[in-house]
Amino acid sequence: MIRAFQWDLARQVERLGFLLDQLPRYAGWGYEELYLHLEDAVDYPSLPGVARPDAYSLRDFEKLVTAADRAGIKVVPIVNLLGHTQYLINHPELRDLNELRAPDGSPLPRGQLCPLHPRTLETAGKLLGDMAPFCTAGKVHVGLDESFQLGKHPLSHAEVKRIGLASHFSGYVNRLHTLVQPLGLRMGLWADMLALLPEAIPQLPRGLIAYDWYYYPFPRHPRMELHNFADYDLAPAFAKQGIEYWGCPMNGGFRHEALPVFGDRLANLQSWWRRCRQTRAGGFLVTGWEPQRLAFEMPLVVDAAAASLWINPEIDDHAGMLAKGFERVFGKAGAREAARAALACDEHAFAGYAKWEINDRWDGLAGPEGPARAGRSARFFTRLARQNLPAPFAASAAFNAYLAAREAFIRHAARTVQKIRRRHATGQARFVADAVTTARTAADLFAVQIKAGRAAARTMWARTRNPRVRSPNEDIIARDTARLKAWQRWLAAVARRPSRCLDTSPVHGRWQLTFIVHNHAPALQKILVEQQSADGVWTALAERFTIEFRAKAARPHASIRREFSVPVDTPARPLRIALRGIGEITVSHVRLTEGVITLAPRDWPVREHRTLGTPASRSGFPDLHLASNRDAVELVWS
User: What gap in Å lies between CA 489 and CA 492, rounded to an integer?
Assistant: First the structure.
């Protein structure tokens, strides 16, 4: 079984020298292949203009591949050729390849490649030809994952109607295979589309490599999130068709996480290692995705810990595996202490959309939860950052301390708005003045925490990347700085004229709608709050995917409660709670308040759960249904 790892360079450019230094280390840990997720991170000679400004030159890319070969590691470039092809659609001359069309037939600015567009195979051929010299493992990976927009283009729609979605997809795979064969390469693809379209497997060419991925622990078989985490098993069908089977865990964070959730990652590694051995898989690929908000060395620790699966099979506990990971990356001193600290971070993880939406808005934390939990996390990470940890871990802890402190600060500020309004309504001018003074002091203290958060984000980024580039975490802090100034202006306005406390603030609307979302059957649900305008049009005020990205939520049955809070200008216009996506949720504890008056929905007891949506299908290709509501409940206030 081949042991492989992946670097995602499509989101950020790592310094070439740093990457070159890591290759002998990976070889020493027993890794044999390197998969490079690229998109626009490399200059393609046949498609000038596709690469981004800071992309690797072909000469630098050759240095990377040559150094890997020298270390005994073969390279497999990943060339996305269906889903995740925004890097091509962004180019004006390739925009027309988009599957998605406006009503007038013009290509939309975002989407994925149309398999039947007359220029798609020509473009694919150029990309494959440019990458072929660097396929030192004798393979090229063409992606094809998460291609949920199949069949939307008029050409695709007509073919799907005629032969079905499975044959439409397999036909494209076969056409790509005819491009790869003359290059003397084997072709690989992610297996998720085949889990959704198993009827396509018998129509595929023999000799393919299918990379089955799932990023949570599982007892026997991987699961499909879109099917309410139902088990699936592709290995027998692949074996029958002569397709090589690989298992793929993941080493890092999801989207906006600033640290890996280490326990989940290690359990995921163990699940796949066990399955790969049971199925006699061709390979075990530790993937890594979207590391731009992580210190790059932290998922590298997970890669090093994964090596214990074959170097130290007697070590099967997470603390022991992770201690070996820290030892291999940073040295033996303090490795066990760092491992214990890393696993303790999981309890305070910045994971899931309910957390991440704070990066985009501060007015969604005015619910009943309060600041206590976030305050505990802030204190935990602050203490951790002061310990004798490896520098990237310490910086990551400091940045997580900022994220938690930010949440606690915003939740407290939202409560302050409600208190000020209540006291103003009862004529307690002295209390209003004192509360404003206290809030302004807290804002000044948070400004100091912003500076510390910015310094931590800079350290996380600059250790392995271009220090002249501002990191995505620093972009978040820049937006936070602007919101803090807006909050300070609101407080100043209230200090001058207390009646201004009724104005919308950055942390609380004129009114605030809050309720609890119960995710009891996880899938791909999206919850929205919409309000109807005077002309009858419903507009989304806020929306959130319910995905948690945690092992505890990656199961058919869960018990997850998350508050949802959204500012509302007026209760005079109709409001509704809506659901899109796949699956069902329940809602309870619906309230609308401006701090003084609280309204409840008519004929809806506060603890009563109302169900939105329907159970997710356990098989088949999903209709994501993200553009329109599957279900909604209108709120009529008593």
Answer: 5
